[in-house]
Amino acid sequence: MQYANRQIANLLHSDLNEVYLFHGTRKDRVNVLLHNGFDLRLAAMNFKSLWLGAGVYVADEANLSAQYTERNGVCTIFVMRVCLGDVFTTKTHMTDLKRPPCKSFCNGICTQHKDFFDSVVGEFPQREFVVYDDAKCYPEYVIQYQVVQSPPDHKGGYY
């Protein structure tokens, strides 16, 4: 995400690879998430399968996060402060992940090594970032908006 205001970007800790990313949610969950934070045990409750396993999903494009909000009425997207740390990049689905892969690149869930990546980015048509520790992200800003239908095109245009 390109930061509109450099002062906001200066609040981030670049040595931790801390960034602002978007997370869309339904309106019935906004207050719970703001008061209690994210609970990774509930990550898969609305999805049959998660492309990058059970974690907190965020995106650098707001339109991707908007797909997880209501279709009508007021929609909510969080601007999340996320500590990505050392990022593992993949172009494949890794649905069994419960934490990032180990740095030795073991297949499956590694229990042998001590060095792990901190987050995962899926290089899909739109990038998705996942952190598997809810302490590495929190909703810093709330954006609420309403999608308005554009008026029908009249012959002769508008005046």
From TrEMBL:
Superkingdom in the source lineage: Eukaryota
UniProt cross-references to Gene3D superfamilies, sorted A to Z: 3.90.228.10
Keywords, alphabetical: Glycosyltransferase, NAD, Transferase
PROSITE patterns with a match to the protein in the record: PARP_CATALYTIC (PS51059)
InterPro entries tied to this protein: ARTD-AVP, Poly(ADP-ribose)pol_cat_dom
GO molecular function: NAD+ poly-ADP-ribosyltransferase activity; NAD+-protein mono-ADP-ribosyltransferase activity
Entry-linked Pfam families: PARP
Record-annotated PARP catalytic domain positions: 1-154
EC number: 2.4.2.-
One CC-aspect GO term: nucleus
PANTHER family the UniProt entry points to: POLY [ADP-RIBOSE] POLYMERASE (PTHR45740:SF2)
Protein name (database record): Poly [ADP-ribose] polymerase
Provenance organism: Mytilus galloprovincialis (Mediterranean mussel)
